[in-house]
Amino acid sequence: PVAGTLSGTTEACIAGTTTFSSTEAGGSWSSANTAIATINASTGLITGVAAGTVTMTYTVSGTGGCPDATATRDVTITAPPVAGTLSGTQEACIAGTTTFSSTEAGGSWSSADITIATINSSTGLITGVAAGTVTMTYTISGTGGCPDATATRDVTITAPPTAGTLSGTQEACIAGTTTFSSTEAGGSWSSANTSIATINASTGLITGVAAGTVTMTYTVSGTGGCPDATATRDVTITAPPVAGTLSGTQEACIAGTTTFSSTEAGGSWSSANTAIATINASTGLITGVAAGTVTMTYTVSGTGGCPDATATRDVTITAPPTAGTLSGTTEACIAGTTTFSSTEAGGSWSSADISIATINSSTGLITGVAAGTVT
């Protein structure tokens, strides 16, 4: 007999199969080591048991005194690959990175959707492209009839936060306030120097503490592997002005003047009633207009968010007295008398030359002393 020519795939995976055949029918198959692979005696179906190479024998029995005919063919059984256990941070920011790895070397990485994230096939470096979740696959190629081994791990890509556009008045007075805001909600505020100004972390309310400029930072926390987003805006805190201490004579006659001044320069003067008295805005010169009392205000303009500082001082304007109309006989004899009087009471009389005539200061009684004319 002849065993024929054998054929069939000579490799298989553990638990996998392959089939041997012969050009001669009627024989039977056997395995040299069933611990490596078994073979169905009639069909030639080989099943892998363990990694190794084993010889399969095809035997056609001899008849009429002829010996059996045999032919052999080796088969190699291969252990299936394993993709290992995958690890690595499963979140990253758009344009950020994370890396996956496996306990088994020699494989290659691929992304199920490179519009969400790409992965370097050899290093496992993932780069975020757009927000979303994508599956990464690690593949170890199968050999010797074994299929590829794969393992998967998801990664979530997150859009980075934005701190928005900041706004708000950038100046305030000591003890005064201003408020900053952002076009993006959900962040928190902080001051670079709370000895100059504090800021409420949630409302953005700034309170001036001391003169100076300080940077306020608005922070929106990053999630999903994204870093925090920050934006900054400066605020300048100004010391409030002072109007100083006012001084100057507080009374003047109608058409008369007096001057007010302050211990602080740079301010301007104003009158509460220019019908009573005017005041020069820069010099403080007051001019009486009519009888009465009026308040003069000295104002030093506030800057940097500070209000104006003011101080006040009153001035009283008095009408001038009048001596009235005088009457009385304008001649007298030596040792004789005459009397002068006025339409205005309360005044006192005096003589320009008492060697000619004397006059009683209260009654106006004139007494002649010597010949002459006297006022």
TrEMBL record:
Domain BIG2: 1-70, 80-150, 160-230, 240-310
Domain of life of the source: Bacteria
Alphabetized InterPro entries for the sequence: Big_2, Invasin/intimin_cell_adhesion
SMART domains listed in its UniProt record: BID_2 (SM00635)
Gene3D superfamilies assigned: 2.60.40.1080
Coiled-coil ranges from the UniProt annotation: none
Record protein name field: BIG2 domain-containing protein
